From TrEMBL:
EC number: 5.1.3.9
Record-linked Pfam families: NanE
Protein name, as recorded: Putative N-acetylmannosamine-6-phosphate 2-epimerase
Job of this protein: Converts N-acetylmannosamine-6-phosphate (ManNAc-6-P) to N-acetylglucosamine-6-phosphate (GlcNAc-6-P).
GO cellular component, one term: cytosol
GO annotation terms (biological process): carbohydrate metabolic process; N-acetylmannosamine catabolic process; N-acetylneuraminate catabolic process
Gene transcribed to yield this protein: nanE
GO molecular function: N-acylglucosamine-6-phosphate 2-epimerase activity
UniProt feature coiled coil, ranges: none
InterPro entries: Aldolase_TIM (IPR013785), NanE (IPR007260), RibuloseP-bd_barrel (IPR011060)
Signal peptide from the UniProt entry: none
Top-level taxon of origin: Bacteria
Length: 227
């Protein structure tokens, strides 16, 4: 079995928990995110998604599950592992899968997605997840050589509406059109939505906020009480 087959077999049908805290937040600390990841493992997660080189390195050391790593730089446009330099650093930090912006937008270093992936392949053993915002992105990312595509940027890149829940239609479209696995990601807030994403054809399902972001979860409850 190739490394790619092994990793994607172990993720098949399961839950990947995204463990991220945002700049300035109390939980923005590698030790804290690693503990959150360990707690997710105890609950049955099959993979971890993590942001930032320090978090990726510590999670790689302590958590024995495939890790999808990314490095966010900036807040808008292309900000998820935006350049080849960021992607190489994420692989170097220990992520088995490097997640990067997989949209068709211009990248800050001027490389195309295909050029970025070719360099990553030459210089690392990491697998590649292209975070996409539309079916056209996903098709272009497969063509460029991505090992899997995510629906991560649906609702954030201007091509798809930002729904309250997951973009099930996009998951279904991608699953029906591509041969690489589609990872459902983005606004999956309930177990029922996770199951629906899997039924729509997702190879695996990423949940972040609803499991690992207490500030947002708290605001859901305080908002309900304020009504
Ligand atoms: C758009 C963007 O920046 N997405 C980021 C990608 O890593 C994270 O902020 C999300 O938390 C992650 O995609 C999981 O999604 P959700 O937290 O909705 O379950």
């Amino acid at each position: 079995m190739t490394e790619s087959t092994t990793v994607f077999e172990s993720l098949r049908g399961g839950l990947i928990v995204s463990c991220q805290a945002y700049p300035g937040e109390p939980m923005r600390h590698a030790e804290t995110m690693t503990q959150v990841a360990e707690a997710a493992v105890a609950g049955g997660a099959v993979g971890i998604r993590a942001q930032g080189l320090a978090d990726i390195a510590l999670i790689h050391e302590r958590v024995r599950l495939p890790q999808i790593g990314l490095w966010k730089d900036g807040n808008d446009d292309v900000f998820i592992t935006p350049t080849l330099r960021h992607a190489l650093a994420v692989a170097e930090a220990g992520a088995e899968v490097v997640a990067l912006d997989g949209t068709r937008r211009r990248r800050p270093d001027g490389l195309t997605l295909a050029e970025t992936l070719t360099r990553l392949r030459t210089e690392t053993n990491a697998l590649i997840m292209a975070d996409c915002g539309s079916l056209d992105d996903a098709m272009a990312a497969e063509q460029a050589g991505a090992d899997c595509v995510g629906t991560t940027l649906s609702g954030y890149s201007g091509e798809r509406p930002k729904l309250d829940g997951p973009d099930l239609e996009l998951i279904e479209q991608i699953a029906g059109s591509l041969s690489v696995p589609v990872i459902a990601e983005g606004r999956i807030h309930t177990p029922a939505q996770a199951a629906a994403a899997k039924r729509a054809g997702a190879h695996a399902v990423v949940v972040g906020t609803a499991i690992t972001h207490p500030t947002t979860i708290t605001s859901w409850f305080t908002g309900a009480l304020a009504d």
